[in-house]
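Technical annex B. To support the medicinal chemistry partners, we prepared a structural model of the target in complex with zinc ion, based solely on the information shown next.
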Amino acid sequence: MIRKFYPYGKKKAFNVTYDDGVEQDVRFVELLNKYNLKGTFNLNSALMEQEFEWTHESGLVVKRLNQKEVASLYKGHEVASHTATHPYMDNLTKEEILRELSWDKRRLEEIFSEEVSGFAVPFDYYSELIEECVKECGFEYARISEESLCFSPQSDYYNWKATVFHLDDSLEELAERFVRSDSELALFQIVGHSYDLDTEDKWECIENILRRIGNNSDVLSMTTIELVRYLRAMDKAEITEEYIENNSEESLWFLVDETLCEVKPKAKISLK
Ligand SMILES: [Zn+2]
């Protein structure tokens, strides 16, 4: 029997993907670092530069982190694009969408001195036109604003749904089910904005989940781009009863009849 595993022979993967780059990310990143977990942070470079702020209905003033604050904060995590100015994109022309995406990608790459290959949709509007622009700008995936509410990894990388929004009533129950899940390549991915943890008083709840998952030796914490690249590499593998052929540039892991196997890039292993 052949079963697909995540890198280093881990059965499951975990990720958080948080939007907007707000002040509460400082506390949130501290928590991730405390439990050795990786996150993906989706940022709007123009709002960062304006140090944009707005008042939440609870009265909390939600502030964007500025460029100086973000540079070291997200070290070890993924920075992804969330458009330059966070528009609702239903009325934008193709040129305007392309400008929002490419401008943000370029600015974030300058600020962080690293390649930005991920994209998360602002608000909840997504369309085939936006998908086309995401691909034209060279992004490798687009996270949309829908929940999958299951542990199967997504197969459409340009309509990527995270597992659950962090204010969903089912969050804790799903986290518990994930810890007990035995499904192949099980993935749990939480989406949110860290200011909700203040307004909804959710810090303790989220820390309990991060601790529980961070202490689980079956789980590998990955950024979204690492997940997408690994799953794409797995898609390209040829798996038969006789052999496994890795057609990608990264190592793939499998459990073959109780034995853990690492198949190196471009390698083929015989199962006979
Ligand atoms: Zn947002």
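Notes passed to the chemistry partners:
Residues 19-20, 82, 86, 122 surround zinc ion (CB under 6 Å).
Residues 13-223 form a domain with the TIM Barrel fold (CATH 3.20.20.370).
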